[in-house]
UniProtKB/TrEMBL annotation:
InterPro entries: ArAA_b-elim_lyase/Thr_aldolase, Low_specificity_L-TA-like, PyrdxlP-dep_Trfase, PyrdxlP-dep_Trfase_major, PyrdxlP-dep_Trfase_small. GO terms for molecular function: L-allo-threonine aldolase activity. Pfam families: Beta_elim_lyase. It comes from the Bacteria. Belongs to the threonine aldolase family. This is L-threonine aldolase. One of its GO terms (cellular component) is cytosol. GO terms for biological process: glycine biosynthetic process; L-threonine catabolic process. The keyword Ligase does not apply. Keywords: Lyase, Pyridoxal phosphate. The modification N6-(pyridoxal phosphate)lysine is found at K203. Coiled coil: none annotated.
Amino acid sequence: MKIIDLRSDTVTQPTPAMREAMMAAPLGDDVFGDDPTVNALQDKLAATLGFEAALFMPTGTQSNLCALMSHCQRGDEYIVGQMAHTYRWEGGGAAVLGSIQPQPLNHQPDGSLALADIESAIKPDDAHFARTRLLALENTIGGKVLPLSYLAAASHLARGRGLNVHLDGARLFNAAVAMGGDPYAQARTICSHFDSVSVCFSKGLGAPVGSVLCGSKAFIKAAHRWRKMAGGGMRQAGVLAGAALYALDHHVRRLADDHALAQTLAEGLQGLPGLTVEQPQTNIVFVDVAPERAQGLLDHLKSRGVLATGLYRLRFVTHLDVDAEGVQRAVAAIREYLS
Ligand SMILES: *Cc1c(COP(=O)(O)O)cnc(C)c1O
């Protein structure tokens, strides 16, 4: 029985063509700046997204950490969402390793942080307070796309108060594809509101490893130092960057297929007794079920070869390695449990 793994878009295997690109990638020692494939990836993503420079990172967590540590010094503060990866899901790294204080805010239903909440969280210049230095947003956030008008307003507010603005764009291209039109141009438009952006290649883009942090030359120089300190200076990293470069060229537009399948999944679950299905905007479907039934449902799905997670709510993520038949099997298994 083929396993339908809907736990995350991180579970994708590199395709045969991606593996070929990895095998064929010219390599060098990236700590010396000598790896042509890493350099090509960094140059290409920076140019695509409208930044001066970029830096290849082993993980999105390290990419975000280096970004936060480059924007903020010891005793500084960043404003961030309660459910943001850079706050909740990175082991407290900014505080532990960076001595940076998070100022978490509750999200609005659309995933945004209310401008009034941001405004009132910015501390005055007073010795009682940490120095508020940064606003960190995430897009997509919980699979939701933040509107461009919101990004513009939030960035305008933050910059007007002397803050920098960072985007955890782990799924930047999912947001760009969901907006319609040319996804590369849309991604660039999103990025125009930020001083730095971190993009994951190991999620829906299907690479086995890797994220890229983008920003100004001076910012990337600072991040490069932190990356070395964090143990992220990799050697013949082009074998990995080759996969990301391939994904950038070949796996961006196809994210639309994942979004369509998430839609199909949500439609298949709509109206089932005991389920509340959130209409997906991208590739993540959240489903609420009575807490006492959640584990039973997950166990049943597992017995039918369908994997999902349920840390807060049930979550089903579509990706490169899930097709329409897999989604139908997932829907059938959920229906079977509830009937
Ligand atoms: C996955 C993810 C990251 C980075 O995760 P790594 O597993 O460290 O690569 C960062 N932000 C968001 C929103 C993510 O989903």
